[in-house]
Each structure stands twice: as structure tokens, then as C-alpha cells.
Amino acid sequence: MSAAIALPEGHSDDPIHSGAPNHPQASDMVIPDVLQRGTLMTKVSERAKKRVIFRIDPDEGQILYKSSKGGIIPIETIKEIRSGTDAHYYRAQFQLAEETEERWITVIYILDGTYKTLHMVADTRDVFKLWDTSLRKLYAIRQGLMSGSGNVGLRQAVWERQYWKGADKAGDQILDFEDIERLCKRLNVNLTTAELEKLFKEADTTNRGYLDFPEFQRFVKVLKHRPDLEAIYQKISSNSGGKFDFPAFEKFMQDTQKSKLSQDEIKSVFAKYTPEQPGTDTTTTSPNEESGFMTIDGFTDFLISPDNAAFSEQNDSIWQDMTRPISEYFISASHNTYLVGHQLVGVSTIEGYIRALLHSCRSVELDIYDGEKEPVVYHGKTLTSKVSLRDICEAIAKYAFVTSPYPVLISAEVHCGVAQQDMLVDIMNETFGEDLIQAPVEGRPKLELLPSPEDLRLKFLLKAKNLYVVEQLAAAQAHSKAATKSPLFMSLPKPSFFEADAPSSTSASSDEPEEKIIKEGITEIKEGITEMKKTWRKIRGKDNSIPKPKVKMSFRLAALLVYTVGVKCHGLAPETTYAPEHVFSLSESGATKLLKESTAELIQHTQKHLVRIYPKGTRVNSTNYQPHRYWASGAQLTAINWQTFDLGYMINQAMFQRNGRAGYVLKPVALRLSEKGLLSKRTQHFFDVTIISAEQLPRLRNPSGQELFEKSIIDPFVEVSLHIPDWSHSPFLPDSAKEAGAKYSPPMDATSTKATSGRTVSFRTRPIKDNGFNPEWQEELCLPFDCIGDMKDLIFVEFAVRQHGKDEGEPLGMYCVPLGSLEHGFRHLPLHDAQMSQHLFSTLFVQINIRDVD
């Protein structure tokens, strides 16, 4: 016997899969009874091995086992399932026999904001196969439903089975009134007992005093009635003579939704949600409906479908040009990738690399030190644990291109001696093979432009300091500074690009004519430039007489530094020249300082060179800065602590959900072209958003993941925030916005405890009392913002649904997206938890528009 999630009455398989043949379906979800009753397996942890009964509840969507800490793992909290050889790392870590590997399952999930692991070893291969196959099917269905708001039929089926099962405590396949009362409390429904009794009696058509499953479906349909959508539908119909035909839909799409679709494409969408479509039962439709009128049900299905997604880049295909130099892209980057916790005492593991790479991160970090036999990775001068470099490289090689085919940049701080530097090279050659970019140190051709992501497809690039280049660059810089301090140089007129600086006094005291002084000064500068050119020829390998640096470096390691050569930042003055392959890293404090002093120069530099920004090291709790502040200067690699779920992490995830989650996003035109007019264009706008309603907000949970039924029904409110780069000294904040309740937070530099942030403008709705099921606000908010160079993709809009009285706590649900990628009109926003996992059934319904200020 096996149990399956059944489709509710009135649904067929066809509407579920219309336009999405690869989506999971209910018929995929068959869970053997033996797994629902429970199987005895070995639970492995650092502390002990225990014999535990594990079971799967397919309707509630949970793994269950007895534990003092809860023993419940909701399927939607699972981030990855590893089994067999994929779980080799853990089997070896726990030093169990190799033969257990073929029966091993590791579940990686998030609970209470922390990554956790569950290790199970089945007694036999047959039990392992049952568990592995069934768990992956259930996981695939939940993941499919968590990728937006589509798959309407299946989503409804899963919802009905989950809440039917949760309400049927007696297991007798019927629900009496007390069961329904408990269910409504769980759903945060705000109805009086009398109102609930009325709905119950209407659903109990046979007057038996209880509801069977079909009657439960009818009860739910009434409970989920959407008067807000009905009002929109009626308004559109009344504006077109009382009918919702194609002309009415086309006008709605063009005028309200600001659709970019052609008329034929709009026709195709309209046909998809009208009753005549194949697979739809037309026996119950009226003649009007059969002749091409969209019903309220069709309109509702459209509004919550992927065809009306809020995020304009909803699909997973790569749509940007990937043939530009790599310096023209923002690149998803991680900081201290090996850590999964605190920067002073956290655990170093391969897990951080796997996690980041599966989320399309394209730049990972290694801090490499001498090990007993081979190099190891850990956070130097701290109490963090150590992990083998070989294990990390094997994990990177295995997971690098699962999500994205574009190059992975390995940013390494190399602290080991020459012998283990050579071992490092051997390990990388063995694990990455021909996919590792390398070239001889001597005789390299001069590089004019960096290659493109497409040129480097499926390749690995090592970025580390080339100590030979670092020493030569420092010498060249010292020579340049000495030349500029000479009396003759100081007496020369300032070039035009220094005109904004304070005038400097002349230090020359010669009695010679001024004309002669200037002539000799120009000669000295020309000689200095000639000397610097000789130095650069040496740096680029044109001269075989490069002296060895004081700090020893393996020539084999230097051969791996081709397009990403680490150097020290010597400022951005015109006399300081960097080759295209030179990359310097700046802490957020250093980057902020450089922004204040040389924003234009930094933008110009990042047009052809890579720059990496990393979090301030004194914030040992691994919090993150807000990366859009540095993206606005053109910095490509803004490294984030992926183990910390905060605003900086959320903004980073929102940015790189773009472009098919490739991990590379093409920078705005204003940051790629040298045309200064684009960056001088400042515009002012209003972000107009009507918060209409929310659907089934999640209940509060305890640290074990269990819903807190004893808590009162929530009083939700919505906070909308615009996170704006501080790209102008005077933000657009009119008095009308302040009077309406706009809250403004200025940009903040990093401190020992707080991260760098941009400016923020936010508004809040009023709270709705005792309703987390279908609260309705119908409240208009108007957020002012300014923009430079039309770079709306660098402004991030955050919607946070919060519990009244817990304003600063973790929100009930949130959604974050680049403003430039947010579609206009009526949209359902899928809500996520603080770890960016989507709540399966929770949405926020809004109307969106951007208004320009004349």
C-alpha cells in the first residue's frame, strides 16, 4: 500500500501542467506505507550513534523522529539531500566504515536561523532506496512550489491535504466543528464563533454534523474567498460594458500592468485562462464563457500565476550578454566561505563552499596555511577549526557548475611556505585539471582587456597576491611619489583634473626664469614615465631579470595567477597605473574612504579592472554591509558572509536571482561606459505602492520549528523600504513625504559592531487586529527616491510583514527585489522567511507604480 497526495475534486492533471511540463505533479508523490509508519535506522551525530525510528508524513510535509529537541524537519526547510558517495565527507568525518556510505543519507536544513544536518544510515540497501527516492520526490514537489507562486492546482492540492491531515487528529477522515475551530485558529482566521458555525453548516450539505473531504474543500473555498480580487474584476468589467473579454484584458495589461508583451502574446495569455482551453471541462460553463470571456476564477488564477510574476526575470534562462569583459559584471562573492558561524570560534568546513556554489556564488575565499602534511584552510589567529585544502578543492570541483556554467574565482590568502605552495598547485591541478586557468610567468602577452564570462565558461581562476608584481608595483609607486615631491614638479601648474583640489604653494626657490623651470620639470616627468614603463615591462614578464622578493613565492603558484593577479591598492591617482589583470581588495572601511575621496576615479577604474570589497574584520559576529553601496561605484566583487542572514545577505540574494541565477549580472550602462553625462543625470521619483491584502501569513514557531498554537492570532502590519545607494549629497525627501510618515535613515559608515549601510526610506501601514489569514489594508504608500544614471537596479525594495509590538524582531514574511526588476500593476509577492526560504502558501497582494517628478 502507498499513499499519494490526491487532487481535490474539480481539478485534473492538465491545468496543473499548462505551460510547465517539467513541474512536479501530485501523481509523482507516492510514499510507501512503511515509511509513513516508520523505519528503524541509525542516527549519526558528533556525540553518538543512536537507533531511532524515522518516518515521513507526506501530507504535512515533514520528517519525524523522537528527539528531546523536537524531531520535526519541515520539508520546505531542507536545503539539500546528499546520499551515497555525495555524503562521503561526513562518513569520513565520523570515521565510520566505508560500507555504510551506500546506505547513508544526509539532510541539510535550516531551523531557527541556523544550518543543521541530520545523518541517517539505513540497515539495508532496499530501505535506503525507499527513503532516498521518496524523500527526493517530496522535496522536489515542495521546491517546485517554492519557486514563485505558480502551479496553482498542485499548490491547492498540497494545501488541502496538509491542513486536512493536521485537523483530523482522530484519523477518522471526518472533521467535526471543534476540528474546524482548531484549524481556523491554526490558520489565523479572524471569525466569530457564530460566523464560523454559519460557514460550517453551509458546507455540511448532508446535515451530519461533520465534514468529509469534499465538504471540507467547499468550506475552504468559501474561507478563501477574495473580495479584493472580485472588486478589481468588477471594475475592469464595468469599464468595458459589463464584460471581461479580450479587449478589456488587453487594456488592463497595457494600462495597469504596463505589460511589454505584444498583442499576440497577450492573446495567448488570455486564452490560457479562459474556459475554452484544452483539458478544461466546459460542460458547466455558460455560453458567454465559452465565447471567450474571462471568469473571476480565471482572472484569479492569472493574477497568482507565473504569467503575472512580480519579478520580471522569473525564468531561469540566461538573458544578458555574457561576452563582455568580466570587469563589466557584478559577480556573486562570498567572504570566509569556509566558516559556518562565528569568525573567532566558528567551524571551518567544506559545507560553506557547497552551500554558496549551489546558490550560484562565483567567488569563494580560502585562507591557506601550512598543515602537518598538506595545506589547510582556517581563519588565522583565531580558534576556528581547520579543514583540508584538498577536501575543499574536491567540493568546489564537484559543485562549481551545478547551478551556473560561468567561471568560479577562487580568492586565496596564501600564508604557507614555498613547499606547501607547490602542494597547493598540485592539489588544484589534480582536482580542477585542464579547467584551471594557468600560463607561464615569463613571456605572457600584454593584456588589453579581461576575457568575458563566456570565454571562461566552466573554468577556475585563482586570485592571490603575486609577490613579484606587488614588490615591483610598490617600487614604481615609491619612485612616482618621489618624483612628484621634487621642487620642479611642485612648481608646475595643476592639470585640469586637479582643479577641484585646494591650490598648492610653490616650493621652488630658484632664481631661474619660470619658463626654464617648467621646461626642466616636464623633462623630469618624461624621464620618470620612461623609467616606469621599463618597470612595467618587467612586471609583465618582458624582462627576465625580475629580482626575487624578500618574501618567497613559488613560481608554480605565480603561473596560476593569470587574469586575477592580486596587488595592493596604491590609490587611484593618474600617475598610478594598474594592468587589466590587477585586482586589489578593500575592506568596507577602506572602500568607503575611497568612495568619499575618489568616486569618479573608482568608477573609471572598475570599468576595466576588478575590485573586491570584503566586510570589516572587527565585526566578529559575521554581519554584512549593504553591498549596493559599493555596486554603485562599479565594484564587482562585494564579498558577503553567507552564513549570516541579514539585510546585506538579502540584498545580495535579490541581486543575483537575476540573469538566470548565473552569478554574473551585467552592470548598468552608466557604470560601463566612459560617457560622464550618464552619471551626471540625476532624476527624482515616487514609488507608489498600494498594500492591498495578504494571504495566510505564517504562524510564529519555536526554535524547534513547531507552530505556537498558544499564542494569540497575529496583528500584522507591512513595512515597505527602499534601500538606496548614497550617490548624492542631498537625498530627495519632500516635506509631503515627511508629513505622510516617511522614515528616513541616512547612510552609515562601519563601526566595530555595525555594518556599512546606504540610505533608507520606509513607510508602514496600520496593523490589522487578529487576522493572519486574509488581512486587508487597502493602504496607499508613496516613497520618494532619487536615482543617478537611471540605475534603478541598484535600488532595492523590501516588503516586510511584521507582528505589531515586535517591530524590530524577525518579520513574519519578507520579499526583496531590485526596483528595476519589479513589475508594475497588481502583483502577488511570494513571502520568505529571514533565511530567504519561501513560505509555501503566504503571499502579499500589492499594486505598484513608479511616478517621475517633473
TrEMBL record:
Q: Which Pfam families match?
A: C2 (PF00168), EF-hand_7 (PF13499), PI-PLC-X (PF00388), PI-PLC-Y (PF00387)
Q: Spell out the residue ranges making up region: Disordered.
A: 1-28, 738-759
InterPro entries the record matches: C2_dom, C2_domain_sf, EF-hand-dom_pair, EF_hand_dom, PH-like_dom_sf, PI-PLC_fam, PLC-like_Pdiesterase_TIM-brl, Plc1_PH
Q: Which biological processes are named by the entry's GO terms?
A: lipid catabolic process; phosphatidylinositol-mediated signaling; release of sequestered calcium ion into cytosol
- Indicate the segments forming the EF-hand domain, all copies: 191-226
Q: Which leading EC class covers this enzyme?
A: hydrolase
Q: Name one GO molecular function term.
A: calcium ion binding
C2 domain: from which residue to which, for each copy?
667-833
Source species: Laccaria amethystina LaAM-08-1
Q: Where is the composition biased (Polar residues)?
A: 750-759
Q: What is its EC number?
A: 3.1.4.11
PI-PLC Y-box domain residues: 557-672
The name under which this protein is listed is Phosphoinositide phospholipase C
**Which reaction does this chain catalyze?**
a 1,2-diacyl-sn-glycero-3-phospho-(1D-myo-inositol-4,5-bisphosphate) + H2O = 1D-myo-inositol 1,4,5-trisphosphate + a 1,2-diacyl-sn-glycerol + H(+)
Keywords on record: Hydrolase, Lipid degradation, Lipid metabolism, Transducer
Q: Which residues form a coiled coil?
A: none
CDD domains in the record: C2_PLC_like (cd00275), EFh_ScPlc1p_like (cd16207), PH_PLC_fungal (cd13360), PI-PLC1c_yeast (cd08598)
